[in-house]
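Section 3.1: Structural characterization of target chains.
Under the original work plan, the team committed to producing a structural model for every single-chain target entering the pipeline before any wet-lab resources were allocated. The record below documents one such target. The sequence was received from the expression subgroup and is listed exactly as submitted; it comprises 253 residues.
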Amino acid sequence: MLFNYHTHTTRCNHAVGADREYVENAVKNGVKTLGFSDHAPYVFPENKPYSTFRMAVEKRDEYVASIRALAKEYEKDIRILCGFELEYYPAWHDQETAFLKEVNPDYLILGQHLLGNEERVVHTKTEYRPDKVLSSYVTQTLEGLKTGDFLYLAHPDIAGYLFSETAVSREYLRLCEGAKALHIPLEINLLGIRSKRQYPNRTLFKIAAEVGNEVIIGCDAHEPQHVGDLISEKIALEMVNELGLRLIDKPLI
């Protein structure tokens, strides 16, 4: 693995390890470009409850300063980028991206965990899902991608189980065709492999192979040793080769 754009920090409240440890593990494992993309702090209206699964608003500047300092310190060993993983919430997207652009991030990746404006859950822990939820997920995700603000789509298959086979085939085809038309790569998420989650979803990536989507491998690192995770990467590459996926083999930035 020569580049990875999906790396978290302790600021999201569900990752461990110092920022420096992620960098040192990346260098040790031969990664040439390491992109940090912690869960972006979201600027909600005052009556919106504080979200505990992402960075607090007041930690934005400290996060960026830490990553930029490491980029300078390790510039001879590795290229370090500073980005954010962000949900697309239509009611607040413009003010949110304006808030993030104040610190000039290198990129944003779309990781859609909830629907509406953070009102409906599509996360993997949800136990019951009518087919219309998957349809809503795909519609909102494509609307987010159409903004042009995102480098790629993280874990595109996070919502793709507990639905009828007909809905999965129909909606994943719509997602893959929409992403390809926008030239947006789809991520094969190594956290899903490491944690034995319901993704990566073979149905989605079989469709992606047929549609001709570009795919990218993302560590989704929440611990330093996850950066350059060769065991999970090997499983991902086996799927790439088996399905004939178009794997991106050069840096996106």
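The chain has one domain: 3-247.
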